[in-house]
Amino acid sequence: MRNLLAKLPPPGDGKAFVLDDEVALRFFRLQQMTEGSIALSEGEAEPLKGPIDVGTGRSLDDHIALSSLVDKLNERFGTDFTEADQLFFDQIRVSAERDENIAEAARANNFANFSAFLDRMLDELFIARMEGNEEIFSRVMTDKEFRSAAHEHLAREIFRRVREQEPVD
Fold first, then answer.
1. SS3 state at 144
2. How much is the pTM?
3. How many angstroms separate the CA atoms of 106 and 12, rounded?
4. Which among 53, 62, 85, 95 could bridge 81 via Cys, Cβ 3.0 to 4.6 Å?
């Protein structure tokens, strides 16, 4: 599969492509992965509401709020990310929402297809965000005027937010 993906053009460019003799199916294997019953249990059936109730069947209970993503990663991987690290993921989300190709894919596909598309785009989103942060870091370190403006804004915001959180005696 990895070799095939390397031959395909970037998603969403709309151009036709021909693989010619570059890709050929040489082997095919059919293998039973599991055996079991799919019998329905007795009980009250709920009526289908239309096309939204058919398809890939991904449970809505699997939804994880973006704000808890860092907590889930820490729990699962033993990392020690903080709420501040959550901002990185928030920035990725905002960048993705503003990307017209990604937004169009979300509007035009079901969740499973969109998720597969986003998986191919995720590396680019992470790299762009890292490069964006490098640019800010470099600018803060080399441009005194830029640093001064950033400092003034940050000082006011940090001062205001910390003082708002002070306990009242």
1. helix
2. 0.46
3. 12
4. 85
